[in-house]
Design brief:
This protein is α/β, with parallel strands linked by helices and 241 residues long. The chain has a single domain, classed as Aldolase class I (TIM Barrel, Alpha-Beta Barrel). Helix 5 links the parallel strand 4 and strand 5. The C terminus is likely disordered.
């Protein structure tokens, strides 16, 4: 595993949350990033579901370099290349493409491919990865499916997403093979479109606080505090702003 992959995975292990962003107007990108940062979560997966996604990423890169903004819905190598050139600090895909994984690893760009089956997990392991997006988790079977995967795939970890809400995300974080969870409950598309950035900030702040409470018993038991994520994660080899 390359250095940037390890560093990004460590950051996910600390924050445990990945806001999934669908943005329709690039002018909302910077105030959205500000809301996420002010809420205590300097991270976003900007999905390639709209034509302005890469422009939104470029604006965040230029105005908020401390933001760990990545790109989701990466379906092919062309998408991965465009994401890298726009300044993405990580790549997430809904499915497993060996070509996308190889491109990202070759360019030291953290990548978390999506998968849904045992065969895809084995393919991901063969590619040199150990942490994967598991999507769509609610359709796949939720907690029961994750617990079943822990049997044959001990040591393999997941970032489940797809159907998680403010009411359910904490229960997934209690599972031993879950590193982080992704979802749009903290920055819903209609909130972004309506420029309700205070609402987004407060939802992020609430989710971050709830994650901190989940970690508290472990800290108390071990007698040591879990490291707090720095607002910025410098990823070597990222394209210049």
């Amino acid at each position: 595993m390359n250095m940037n992959q390890s560093a990004m995975t460590a950051a996910l292990r600390r924050s445990r949350l990945i806001p999934v962003i669908v943005i329709d107007d690039a002018k909302n990108a910077v105030p959205l990033a500000t809301a996420l940062i002010d809420g205590g979560l300097p991270r976003a997966e900007i999905t390639l579901r709209t034509p302005v996604a890469l422009e939104a990423l470029r604006r965040i890169r230029d105005a908020k370099p401390e933001m760990n903004a990545g790109v989701g819905t990466v379906l092919n190598v062309k998408h991965a290349k465009e994401a890298r050139e726009a300044g993405a600090k990580f790549v997430i895909s809904p499915g497993f493409s060996r070509a996308v994984v190889d491109y990202c690893l070759e360019h030291d760009l953290p990548v978390y491919p999506g998968l849904a089956t045992a065969s895809e997990i084995e393919a991901g392991l063969d590619a040199g990865l150990n942490l994967f997006k598991l999507w769509p988790i609610v359709t796949l079977g939720g907690h029961e499916y994750l617990n079943l995967l822990a049997g044959p795939f001990g040591g393999v970890e997941f970032n489940p997403s797809g159907g998680l809400t403010a009411a359910t995300f904490e229960s997934y974080l209690s599972l031993k093979n879950v590193v982080a969870v992704g979802g749009s409950w903290m920055a819903q598309p209609d909130w972004i479109a309506a420029r309700q950035f205070d609402k987004i900030r407060d939802a992020v702040r609430d989710s971050v606080a709830r994650v901190a409470k989940l970690a508290k018993p472990a800290r108390e038991e071990s007698g040591s505090a879990r490291p707090v994520e720095s607002p910025a994660l410098t990823v070597a080899g990222s394209p210049p702003a």
